[in-house]
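User: Can you predict the 3D structure for this chain?
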Amino acid sequence: MKDKVNDSLQESVNLALEAMRLEAGDKFSLSKVNLAELERRTGISRAKLRRLKSNGFVVAPHANTGRNVERTVLTGYTGLLDSLLSQGVSNSSVCFERIQEAGYTGGLSTVKTYIHSHKHLLPAKRQVVAPQGNRGRRFSTAPGESYQMDWGFVNVADHSGGMFTVACFVMVCHCCGLRYAEFFPNAKQENLFIGMIRGFKYMGIPEYVLTDNMKSVVLRRNSEGEPIWHADYEAFMRSLDFKTKLCKPRHPYTKGKVERLVRFVKENFLAGRVFLNITDMNRQAREWCDKQNSIYHRAVNGVSLDIHRQECASRLKPLEDAPEVRQYLCPLRKISFDGFVNYEGRRFGVPYYYTRKQVRILRSDNKLYIYSDDLGQLLLEHDVTWSKHDSYCKDQYASNAQPEERPTAPVAVQTAFAQPPDANDSFAKFDFSKGVHWDE
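Assistant: Here is the predicted structure, written as structure tokens:
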């Protein structure tokens, strides 16, 4: 680009000098060129023409051309950008947010320029597959009519170098794109119920939910293709008063919004983040959902939260705090012989004075609450540390005090103890001060 500018400048100066030479004839001399006239013809400042005159009116490149500055606004953050690019994160908005959290004060354009010039750090893309079928039509529903839900799975490396899998429950409103995400240690049916209830609390209850053929939702289909629901899931639908529609097997395009949301969570929310535990993941996921629901999205041509409140909310049913809902939020657990209950791979102690065989457990933020099996009594609460060590509680075991007899009738006999005599010191006979009065 700079070479083109220099060539254009040189051409303009040469044309002006040639015209002046034709006008002056034999009297023309480069050393006596009228700089004021040359400035009028070329539009170049007289100071710059004076520098060109000292060089014989030859436009030379700047002395610093090709040199890079030692420190830029990105200095100190290129390592973080290189790390994100090596992980396959090429979204400039994500990279910009991550380095902003580290203290970057520059603009987005600088980050885009850096990513464009360092694309060689990105891992190789997958091979392009052949198109699957012909063109189809997008599935659409009325406001508040349908949600889509699904599971996504993420591998997590802990601080000790081990690897385990975390399940991400996602739900999205099919009309306005309002999204909800929550992480669980596994994708069991009880966690599906908890995720759906919290999603309904965040968004409202629609007419029906669109999902794929999960094992915790449907057992099989009969000869006519109608679903045979899982008994617990069918009872869950009746309790919350909503319906479920199943997608065609091996056809993910039917619920493309939630499939895209799973990918969006992995590529935007999880990219470049480090978490303390699942509780921290859910806290940041809730903040991320609130942020994404409050900004403009081209897919719905508006802000999802505003559209949901204006169009969808009037057709949704609120989630009531019914006993059936609380039972799904607090799954049952059996008490082991040593006074522990197992929940999400961890063991928590139960007081020995609770004599029943089952309890209900609720995990909320950093606390784990243990209730009686009828939810009538809160037994105790534990701090959720996500440690593999057992969490004991006060009064988990009976004390080892020995039995003691107490009087069965009023005590009538009374006695007393005399003051003990002084000790007989063998050196007392040598104390000659006894009986002597020094004042006499």
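The CA atoms of residues 57 and 325 lie 86 Å apart. The longest helix spans residues 2-24.
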